[in-house]
Write a structure and sequence with these properties.
five-stranded mixed beta sheet; globular; alpha/beta; seven-stranded mixed beta sheet; single chain; 306 residues; 12 strands; binds zinc ion; Metallo-beta-lactamase, Chain A; 33% helix
Length: 306
């Protein structure tokens, strides 16, 4: 989410709107937030690429979607903004696969820049939506009850077909994908891990939801939701302890995609190997979190002294 959006969303009074098949959520965002400009990088396409093995990037220039393929159908993690179904579908096609064969849909965080076209893909392919329990409510009301960005629908609501638990292994064909609850960014934020064997080696791959704190979010003083500070702390702690060789994330900027990937070079399973980079990225987010905790505590004490 962009900084300006966060500020604007904080000022918007709740308005209830019914979902309809024809509603444009991009228009709705413009109407509700006249000063919000969708970042250009969110609207730009990008050709698909192979992360490793059967894991592919099929999203846009910054907003990431991941396809995990099997002979029995595929798993798709995330869309981007409304309308991204076209690019995602074209990217899947360019890899030689068909979006119609997507059987399971997942999201890493229930914010519109990652969920907007999940409902359309579900309608068009019959894929089942799996989600973590704490993100179900927000997915099903199109972001209305989001404790930070809510108050109106920001994306097309999607019915969740199956709740997945922390540590649960999602199986499809020969895919075994482990769900990891990494809450904080949203109440039900989650990452997905799998082992990929290539080059006679086993690579631990993490499709990681990073614990970024959107501007305006409160951790301890009138927290955005009860337990949000503990959730972030849990996420940083558990992520640092995970075995990770390769990591990618919901925004390509978060994992340095454009530093790591060069389209002119042939595929290599080692392109995204970056275990230290992952730990460093988590530590950096944790450091910002600690600064904010301290700031909120200091402000509260100053207010109490007056
Ligand atoms: Zn987000």
């Amino acid at each position: 989410m962009a900084y300006r959006l966060a500020i604007m969303l904080a000022l918007v009074a709740p308005t209830v709107a019914a979902a309809s098949a024809t509603v444009s959520y991009n228009d709705k965002l413009k109407e509700a937030l006249p000063d919000f400009e969708m970042p250009a990088a969110w609207q730009r396409s990008h050709p698909p690429f192979r992360v490793i093995g059967n894991v592919y990037g099929v999203g846009g220039f910054d907003l990431a979607s991941y396809l995990i393929t099997s002979a029995d159908g595929h798993i798709l993690i995330n869309t981007s903004i409304e309308g991204s179904i076209e690019d995602i579908s074209a990217n899947i096609g360019a890899l030689g696969y068909d979006i119609a064969d997507v059987k399971i849909l997942l999201s890493m965080q229930s914010h519109f820049d990652h969920t907007a076209d999940l409902a359309r893909i579900k309608e068009e392919t019959g894929a089942k939506m799996y989600a973590t329990a704490p993100d179900v409510r927000v997915l099903e009301d199109g972001g209305f009850s989001d404790p930070h960005f809510g108050g109106f629908e920001t994306f097309r609501p999607i019915k969740v077909d199956k709740i997945v638990g922390d540590g649960e292994v999602i199986e499809l064909g020969d895919i075994k994908l482990t769900v990891h609850y990494h809450p904080g960014h949203t109440e039900g934020s989650s990452s997905y891990a799998m082992a990929v064997q290539e080059n006679g080696k086993i690579y631990h791959v993490l499709i990681a939801n990073m614990g970024t704190i959107n501007p305006g979010k409160k951790l301890v003083v009138e927290p955005t939701y009860p337990g949000v500070a503990e959730d972030f702390a849990y996420t940083y702690r558990t992520q640092k302890a995970m075995p990770v060789d390769i990591w990618v994330a919901a925004h390509k900027s978060q994992y340095g995609f454009y530093y790591k990937y060069d389209r002119s070079k042939p595929y290599s399973p080692d392109t995204f190997v970056d275990p230290q980079g992952f730990v460093d990225a988590v530590k950096q987010l944790e450091a910002s979190y600690r600064v904010q905790l301290q700031q909120e505590t200091t402000e509260r004490e100053a207010a109490n002294d007056n």
